[in-house]
Amino acid sequence: MLGYSVRRLLLIIPTLLGILLVNFAIVQAAPGGPVEQAIARMQGLDMAQDLGGATVDSFATTATSSASRGLDPRLVADIERQYGFDKPPLQRLWLMLTQYAQLDFGSSFYRGISVTDLIAEKMPVTVSLGLWALLITYGISIPLGIRKAVNNGSAFDVWTSTLIIIGYAVPAFLFALLLILMFGGGSGLNWLPIRGLVSEDFATLSAAGKVLDYLKHLVLPVTALVVGGFATLTLLTKNSFLDELSRQYVITARAKGAGERQVLYGHVLRNAMLMVTAGLPSAMLHVFFGGSLLIEVLFSLDGMGRMSYEAAVSRDYPVVFGSLFIFTLAGLLIKLVGDLCYRLIDPRIDFSSRGH
């Protein structure tokens, strides 16, 4: 298993390099970059007013043509130098890769802070949101899936399946809007806050008050995040247990007089959990980095998802590439941990033959 882990860790390097190269090439072809935006501001263009329904391409064309009609070429050169666009693309790529090899992601174009500090500032919000969503999803879905498998075909199984399929069919952002309307004072009950992770007077609250305030702010965004993964994991758990319950070793254990609880948790659980563990990496990626984007924007949570969205819109390339690097690295490591969890659950699994 050690050899397999080392090989997987070494494969992370070319994978990261390939993803960075592809995205760097896309960025070079994308119009409306920071240089064009700076030139437009220098020309006194109001992006929101002048663009209206125009595309980013038309904006870039407008900015470039404006520069050629009167902006001092030396000033344009200074702007390009400020954003690092005075060098050829291959040289910029090489400088970026050498910096990334030292875990130096540069500084944000617009925020006046290093990307590393910015990510460290935003990460706790995303991690906090993701951990709660993951704990609640697994804490409810696994017991519910087991009970549905044991009571397969019963009225309980039918109505719970109906509810979770309906929940799965509703997009997370639409469910979030529904929660805001119902419980955030939109047009219903004003029970729960809908902005941030804590209130403005958080520092003045007592210890118990701070905990309560934090939990109240988590209810709506975490609920919106849980819905999709909850349905998938519940049905996966149920189907895994149903598959194991039909196997010969379960029939043999029952024939020898083993109780239903002993059969379920002493024999079936370990084998059935392999399929559930297989879905853990993708569930973690969705909760931490995929589903958090719209949820953070809707609930004004200052986390990694919202930061990445704003950076992409404003063409803040150091932040875009830095967050992409972190997301990709975390995803690869999470998938490796998911594979290793197989071995912890079932020591019979051997990775020594993989990778040849």
UniProtKB/TrEMBL annotation:
It holds the Pfam family BPD_transp_1. It comes from the Bacteria. Residues 123-338 form the ABC transmembrane type-1 domain. The chain crosses the membrane at residues 129-146, 158-183, 218-237, 272-299, 319-338. Its main location: membrane. SUPFAM superfamilies: MetI-like. It is a multi-pass membrane protein. One of its GO terms (cellular component) is plasma membrane. The keyword Repeat does not apply. Keywords: Cell membrane, Membrane, Transmembrane, Transmembrane helix, Transport. This is Inner membrane ABC transporter permease protein YejB. It comes from Pseudomonas reidholzensis.
